[in-house]
């Protein structure tokens, strides 16, 4: 099954760079420009990993995380923050259960870091799905 990566960034160049870096990873890539569109996408599609900028119009990354974390079924979706933020904002982000962080700017120097973190997040998501499947088999098995 092909994994779906949701890239959420209002900076069209950063959005395109992230999609370009992941293009060869045999994943389905969808992108949106703000947190509201990202929430809609998560509600309507099977998303496996989210790459999230924090500074966006309409609904920023913090607003997205606030809403996203309220839904238990979303907790198994790894969120990777890709943003250029200050230390106090990093502390604020760590209050949410994020998977990882990638500092901006996104460029050729950190391309392999981006790709590797996404690969690991996909593996994590698949393991969580397998664990849930096994758990449901154990709970529903006659005994």
Structure, described:
- Strands 2-1-3-4-5 form a five-stranded parallel beta sheet, with helices on both faces.
- The chain is globular.
- The chain has 143 residues and is α/β, with parallel strands linked by helices.
- It has a single domain (4-140), classed as Rossmann fold.
- The chain has five helices and five strands.
- The mean pLDDT is 90.
- α2 packs parallel to α3.
CATH H-level homologous superfamily name? Response regulator
Globally, the shape reads globular
The CATH topology turns out to be Rossmann fold
Major sheet: order of its strands?
A: 2-1-3-4-5
Mean pLDDT over the full residue set: 90
Please provide the ordered H/E string of secondary-structure elements.
EHEHEHEHEH
Seen as an oligomer or otherwise, the chain set is single chain
Note the main sheet: 5 strands, parallel
